[in-house]
Amino acid sequence: MTVLVRYTIAFFALFSMASAHAVTFRSSIDDSKWQLEASKFSCRLSQSIPAFGRAIFEHEAGESVNFQLTPTENIHFSKGAKLYAEAAPWQPGVAPRYIGTVQPEKLSGMLKVKPDQAKNMLAALYRGMMPTFTTSEWYGTNESLRVAVSAVNFQSAYDDYVACTAGLLPVNFRQVARTAILFPSAQWRLSDASRERLDLIALYVRNDDSVKGVYVDGHSDNRGRRLMNRDMSKRRAEEVTAYLISLGLEPDMITTRYHGERYPVVENNSKANRDRNRRVTIRLERD
Question: What is the C-alpha to C-alpha distance for residues 159 and 157, in angstroms, rounded to an integer?
Answer without folding.
Answer: 5
